[in-house]
Design a protein that fits this description.
By secondary structure, the chain is of the alpha/beta class. Helix content is 38%, strand content 18%. The protein has 5 helices and 5 strands. The structure holds 1,3,4-trihydroxy-5-OXO-cyclohexanecarboxylic acid.
């Protein structure tokens, strides 16, 4: 597979559809459409294609990950609140042999203690957090680099 054929699945987890209006002091004013626009621009530069999904539902995210091996060379995911709670999403990432990069806008380690644990990071290729929209940009670069 040449680099041009590589397809990356981007998954935005719960409440990220509210970015721009939600806890602006933590997440900033940037909304999801603006993040997606920047990701698509970078994807063009990197010569990869993207499918971008947002879901507030754990099972839906599990299904997206489970079906990923058929179509995708890498997954870029912000599991949002499910980062800290979802054994099901963790197990889905572990089950598929698709390199998965975990990103967060905020630095989860400098926030409330319940955010300090990521159930996803031990099965992810790596994690990038704390850089706002730049976490996604760096995450997409990593996803494209490690895509199968
Ligand atoms: C988040 C951090 C999570 O703790 C939180 O539940 C989110 C967003 C981030 O991008 O900083 O919804 O994943």
């Amino acid at each position: 597979m040449t680099k041009k054929n590589k397809k990356i699945l981007v998954i935005h987890g719960p409440n990220l559809n509210l970015l721009g209006k939600r806890e602006v002091s933590v997440y900033g004013k940037v909304n999801l459409a603006a993040i997606n626009k920047q990701l698509k621009k970078l994807a063009d530069e990197l010569g990869v294609s993207l499918d971008i999904k947002q879901s507030n539902h754990e099972g839906e995210i599990v299904d997206l990950i489970g079906k990923a091996p058929k179509k995708y060379s890498a997954i870029l995911i912000n599991p949002a609140a499910y980062t800290h709670t979802s054994v099901a999403i963790r197990d889905a990432v572990a089950a598929v042999s698709v390199p998965t990069v975990e990103v967060h806008l905020s630095n989860i380690y400098s926030r409330e203690e319940f955010r300090h644990t990521s159930l996803i990071s031990s099965v992810a290729k790596g994690q990038i957090c704390g850089f706002g929209i730049e976490s996604y940009i760096l995450g997409l670069r990593a996803s494209a680099t490690f895509a199968k």
